[in-house]
Write a structure and sequence with these properties.
Largest sheet: 4 strands, parallel
Shape: globular
Radius of gyration: 17 Å
Low-confidence stretches: 1-12, 16-33
Order of helices and strands: EHEEEHEEHEHHHE
CATH topology: Rossmann fold
CATH class: Alpha Beta
CATH architecture: 3-Layer(aba) Sandwich
Length: 205
């Protein structure tokens, strides 16, 4: 099964978990980024005797055109790393950069713009808004950014995900696998420079 038609673009795709569907892997070619990297990344939860070190001076370069799978047992810091790379949390120390922009030092309003315009994120629990249809959930990032919908691209990713006939349904009317496909499409609709996914195919069958 070939990937969606978006010739001439490559990028970085980061994912967590023990299984990855070809559906998701094929989409790595649509993201575009010069590079993303973390340097001496440390994240500590709590303090003093209650301190838990989730990340301990992690350094990694996510190069253009790559797909990186982060593996490890529960509690090893995979999600913490993914969220730091995507700008969803700030590390205790260290550096996080996306396309030559150091994001760990940005104020929240500037960081929100980076996340909205350059990063696609797939959450473990989907995080779909219950009052919005599948179509509205997928296009929400574009509406928040004030960007027009690329109908051709939208149709292509929804067809690829097999949810074209479910776009008018609310999340409660969808199966777990269908909700996950909606979440994948939402992460891809704005053609992000960086695509991050936490257990992206866990509910797919």
């Amino acid at each position: 099964m070939p990937p969606p038609e978006q010739a001439g673009e490559s990028g970085v795709c980061i994912a967590l978990g023990e299984k990855f569907a070809f559906l998701f892997y094929a989409w790595m070619v649509v993201v575009r980024i010069k590079s993303a990297f973390v340097s001496n990344l440390t994240h500590v939860f709590g303090d003093n005797e209650n301190a838990v070190v989730a990340l301990d001076e992690v350094t990694w370069d996510f190069r253009d055109g790559t797909f990186t799978a982060v593996m490890g047992p529960s509690g090893s810091g995979k999600t913490t790393l993914l969220q730091a790379v995507a700008g969803l949390n700030k590390p205790t120390s260290g550096e996080v950069s996306i396309a030559d922009t150091r994001i760990d030092q940005l104020p929240e309003n500037a960081l929100a713009v980076i996340r909205r315009e350059s990063v696609g994120f797939v959450f473990q629990e989907f995080n779909l808004l219950p009052a919005l249809t599948a179509h509205e959930n997928i296009t929400l990032p574009l509406r928040l950014a004030g960007k027009p919908l690329d109908q051709g691209w939208f149709d292509q990713i929804c067809a690829r995900a097999g949810i074209t006939d479910r776009l008018d349904h609310l999340p409660r009317q969808l199966s777990g696998g269908q909700q996950q496909r909606v979440a994948l499409c939402r992460a891809l609709v704005n053609k992000p420079r960086l695509l991050c996914a936490d257990e992206p195919t866990g509910a797919l069958r």
